[in-house]
Write a structure and sequence with these properties.
alpha+beta; 5-stranded antiparallel sheet; 4 helices; 14% helix; disordered N terminus
């Protein structure tokens, strides 16, 4: 059994849609699951989790509708739940389990990132079963501008990427050939491969210690590799699904903002920035199976 972490804080995730060909004058066909079950989950302390199963199977446990909308419509600009506007209160409290099956495997894309078809199928499920209707707008809000600390000079851990992460179609995944972000030590050690600055902004915009969206203002257009080490200001709560707790050892090493400056040569400057938001026009409780 394989597990896939979708774009929940601190991950972002977020940004991959399947390109489907269409004839002139026709709407492209929507990707959808062959079968899907959606049921309420009465537990209020279960962690939101995802598993990809053999033969195109998917199990999502304990998800709030607001999180599902964030997963399905995420982008490098829409990073945090504060950027999801409107909807009834229950979308942030009631939980649901989804068990579904796709036609064919839900394999990661050529760079080893999220399965592209899965995101489109989840969108279709939300539109069909929850009657989700959304549109994007722009709101000015507190954010951080990601900038280069010293013009023309990158930090010692930030390197232009030479990684070849794409693999030929039909070949088996290579665990040593991946692109994106991986974190350990409660999120305090992050390794990135072949990522853009927009992706860096989106990824760290989900961190609790950051607390607001991040807009890329670096002007850097290459892809980068780095290893960032810091002491996370928060640790996972002992109860599943609980809010992160302050880390009592937070002063034993550099925090995220310091590490950004010293290791990557980047700064996070607080500003009020006009950013996209996702406006919920309509939702319903799910239709029965």
């Amino acid at each position: 059994m394989r597990s896939l972490a979708l774009p929940l804080a601190p991950l972002s995730i977020v940004v991959l849609l399947t390109a489907i060909g269409s004839s002139a004058g026709q709407q492209p066909a929507r990707e959808s699951f062959e079968v899907a079950s959606v049921k309420p989950n009465p537990a209020n302390d279960v962690p939101e989790s995802v598993q990809l199963l053999p033969s195109g199977g998917l199990r999502m446990t304990g998800f709030r509708l607001r999180t599902l909308i964030r997963v399905a419509f995420a982008s490098t600009s829409i990073q945090r739940v504060e950027q999801i506007v409107g909807g009834p209160d229950w979308i942030a409290s009631e939980r649901f389990d989804i068990v579904a099956k796709a036609n064919g495997e839900l394999t990661p894309d050529a760079e080893g990132r999220r399965p592209q078809r899965l995101i489109e199928m989840l969108k279709t499920l939300l539109e069909d079963r929850f009657a989700v209707r959304v549109h994007t707008d722009t709101r000015t809000m507190p954010a951080f501008a990601l900038r280069v600390a010293r013009t023309g000079k990158l930090g010692p851990q930030l390197k232009v990427s030479t990684v070849e992460c794409a693999r030929p179609a039909g070949t088996a995944p290579d665990p040593d050939r991946w692109c994106g972000f991986r974190s350990v030590n409660n999120g305090g050690t992050v390794t990135a491969r072949h990522v853009t600055m927009a992706e860096v902004a989106a990824y760290f915009g989900g961190y609790n210690v950051v607390g607001r969206p991040i807009a890329d203002r670096t002007g850097l257009t290459d892809r980068y590799d780095f290893r960032l080490e810091f002491v996370n200001a928060f640790i996972d709560a002992p109860n599943p699904g609980g809010a992160p707790l302050p880390n009592p050892n937070a002063d034993t090493g550099p925090g995220l903002f310091t590490a950004f400056s010293e290791q990557l040569g980047l700064t996070l400057q607080p500003e009020n920035i006009a950013l996209p938001v996702l406006v919920i026009d309509h939702v319903d409780h799910p239709t029965p199976d």
